[in-house]
Amino acid sequence: MATDPPVIAAALRSPIGEVHGALSGCHPAELLASVLMALGERTALDPRQVEQIIVGCAMPVGAQSDVGRAASLAAGWPDTIPAETLAQHSCSSMAALLRAAQAVRSGAAEIVIAAGIEVMSLVPMGATAMARHAYGKPWGDRVAARYAAQGGLLPDDVRVDELARLHSIERGAQDAWAHRSHSAARAATPHTASQLVAIDTGYTLVDRDERCAREIGDIAELSPMFDEHGSVTAANRASIADGAVAILVTTRDRAASLGVTPLCAIRSGGYAARGPRDVEPAAIAAVERALANAGLDVTDLGRVELHEGHAATVLRVIEGCGFAVDRVNPDGGSIAVGHPTGVTGGRLITALAHGLSGRDTVGLAVVEGEDTAIATVLER
Questions:
Q1: Domain containing residue 310: CATH number
Q2: Does 284 reside within a domain?
Q3: What average pLDDT score do residues 72-85 get?
Q4: Domain presence at residue 37
Q5: Domain housing 332
Q6: Which of 130, 127, 121 is nearest to 31 (CA)?
Q7: Residue 311 CA neighbour count, 13 Å, CB half
Q8: Does some domain include residue 321?
Q9: E-only strand ranges, the chain
Q10: Residue 160 to residue 147: CA distance in whole angstroms
Q11: Which one of 26, 96, 273, 356 is separated from 229 by 20 to 30 angstroms, measured CA to CA?
Q12: In the chain, how many domains are there?
């Protein structure tokens, strides 16, 4: 068993493409393969040294079935590398990272790649449920019956409107956060370029996040999406997208043998969940657990990468956790760049791993989706 915490030796991602945009023609396995190959090339990693690949994918059906194994083979890597695909909605690739860290910490492996993939242009949101309907009802009757007396299961977007009402999070504050996200992402483009792998689609070379090139217009003019009296709009929530990410997890000694200086160590993780009718984010409890597991306090954090599923949720989590606002998403977030569901957790980790610098030696990444949240503490 390793005594030192596992380290992130390298972390790369594709640009994030809009749905039906620049990356929409990429097969998911081949898009992720491009990022895996770049990870190997930039670290001079011999793929034969990789002991396991764990890939997060929220919709592992159709072209994304067993996509971890398919991507490894598409990369031309040895067919003897075990690969698995993990589905945990928006948390998928962060869950893959923590599972990789556990494997390294336990001594079960020394070099593990955690990754994420989602091409939502091809395999849309809800594809797993659509596929499962052909073979039975998702969740079954008992779950529906359990919550029937309370009014049934509630979609996340509907609960966000209720969250905003409960905590008086005004539409203007949500729109202001969306503007902040876009402005910060645009301004950060020059220094986040080193995180990206340019993708040759056969038609064009995609080398920047597609939405960052767009003008967002007057978002105050948009109508609410789910409740005519609500405040959630298409502009103050994240848009689905296409993308891939790959992160090399190993020991400090093994990184040195590869000639790689680690970006950071993985200090701890924390998980939490909420009921399918609850409006309070599970992220607040996940943060508390991750910090407790690391023996840290919120004041120790120099940087926070927080998933922007909805601006209202972001503002509630900032308040509930006591984050310093200027330390949250300094380079923008999911509202600006997009939300390829199974990739976002890994994108947050990649941004944090590259972003820790100077006095900001400890940081936190937080993602939530479909009632489950994960928080991860990194230290440079």
A1: 3.40.47.10
A2: yes
A3: 98
A4: no
A5: 267-379
A6: 121
A7: 25
A8: yes
A9: 7-13, 17-18, 52-56, 83-86, 111-119, 199-200, 205-206, 241-250, 264-273, 303-306, 362-369, 372-379
A10: 19
A11: 273
A12: 1
